[in-house]
Amino acid sequence: PRQSFVMVKGAARLLSVEEPPPAEPPPAEPLGQAPGQQEQHLHLMMQLLRPQDAIRLAVRLESVRPCRVRYLLVVRSEEAGAEAETALLGVDFAHEGANLCTLGMVLPLWSDTQVFLDGDG
């Protein structure tokens, strides 16, 4: 499946086939982040998924450890003929330039799921 993203200030959103890319120029990279690092992180995170899964939203989170990089992903199954499945995934990188990520959390979302995130936003 085609994977096109728009990235804005640490968040990435999947673009659908009929959705045109935004006309505004890309934002400046956050401090301490190498150019292209988010694209590299997205590529590595997509390698964790099954071929029929697609990242619908990826958000970089603040981490308690300053060197660790964390993302929260909303992933949806794009399997034809199957009931759509959605899950929240927590993905960790040991440091900014890491070329390996680990899956730290998997939370399936059901129609009656309520998610409460603790923190200041």
UniProtKB/TrEMBL annotation:
GO terms for molecular function: actin binding; phosphatase activity. Residues 19-29 have a biased composition (Pro residues). It comes from the Eukaryota. Coiled coil: none annotated. InterPro entries: Phosphatase_SSH-like (IPR043587), SSH-N (IPR043588). GO terms for biological process: negative regulation of actin filament polymerization. This is SSH phosphatase. It comes from Poecile atricapillus.
